[in-house]
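From: lab user (bench 3)
To: helpdesk
Subject: output format question, protein + zinc ion

Hello, I'm new to running complex predictions and I'm not sure whether the block I got back is the full result or only part of it. Here's what I submitted:
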Amino acid sequence: MSRPQFISGGCLCGAVRFTVSFPEDADWPPKGNGTCQCTMCRKHSGSLLPQNCGFPKVNISPPLEDNPSYKTYKSSHEAYRGFCGICGSALTFNYNKEPETTEINLGAFDEDVLCGKRDEANAWEDEYGRHVPRIGGVGKELCYAKYHIFMENAIAGVTDDLPGTKWLLDRSSGKGFTGKLTDFKKGS
Ligand SMILES: [Zn+2]
Ligand SMILES: [Zn+2]
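Helpdesk reply: Thanks, we reran it on our side. This is the complete output you should expect:
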């Protein structure tokens, strides 16, 4: 899939809407894309395997902060998280030290972006139900996680078997590994 001009997203109720554009100098596929199983990301998103991707703030429009429904919560001394004050959708993660970047929770992007548009004209039915082919969509390029952090919280057999490089905590501490947590034994 070639570079999209822009992709759209928003919260569940639609009060917060945004587009992310990909001008020539922007990475496509985006690079800063990973899962985080830290307890704060889990609590804020309500997801076992929260995933987000960082985008240059200048490429997000309109600016999220300009939307009165967009609220933020200071989750630690180093970061804050954005959400919709009306429907509660968890939308962003922001490091104070990286004010030029906003990490967007990937599930906030629109269905057409993630899965493609529904091709109803070519739908068919069988014993499993109705199959609707999709046209377009950039989910694979947009959402392929390149790293996984806070694997110390992985749930064996549920959230530990992921492709890509993993870290016990953040990428700044310790070495990245592949394989499963259960491959490690004390003293080996
Ligand atoms: Zn909302
Ligand atoms: Zn986290």
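A quick orientation on your result: The chain has a mean pLDDT of 95. Let us know if anything else is unclear.
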